[in-house]
Design a protein that fits this description.
single chain, 221 residues, Rossmann fold, 5 helices
Length: 221
Amino acid sequence: MDLLHTAHVPAGDGPFPTVIAIHGWGASAHDLIGLAPILHGGEALVICPQGPFALQVAPGMAGYGWFPLASGRPPDPLEFARASRSLGEFIEAACARYPVDRRHLVLLGFSQGGVMAYDLFLRDPTRYAGLAALSSWLPGDLARIVPASEAHKGRPVLVMHGTQDPMIPIERARESRDALLPLGVALSYREFDMAHEISPDALRALIGWLEDKVLGLIQLA
């Protein structure tokens, strides 16, 4: 497994429903692991990989990203493809190493991590039980090259965003919503009065979506 990561492994033998939680720009593998005791009552396996692109977020403080960001410009296609391939390979290795129930495998991405989650999910939706994109955006290039397919239809997708987000304007989330609808996914779209964050209300919505739209439905299948 080439990427550093943190993991919350529930007690027992498994396999466990699993959330791959992908951090945003300037964060690390520790950023989202705090969600683990809350998601699915702490009984989900939560794996948080760390992006390979190192940066300095403050004097003496390192952060990480998935691909370089340049203000006002879309991601470099080669850098983005390299990051997506690396993350996909990591997930495959994690599924071999940890007691993952592959039928219950969910992608959760925050900010830049949501872009990574969008890419992996939309290109191969049959691998994942659902996608949660938090305070993120669906790049226009990706939306244009992914054709609608039977595999997308009915797949649970949650998009949540803050109306006061100073980093990624709410319009980007609305554009993402509009690009997802033609694919036929089972889209849940929520806006909250928050900034670039996961507020308590948003967290409750995320927990409810996981139980009502993803894990609960799969358990009945």
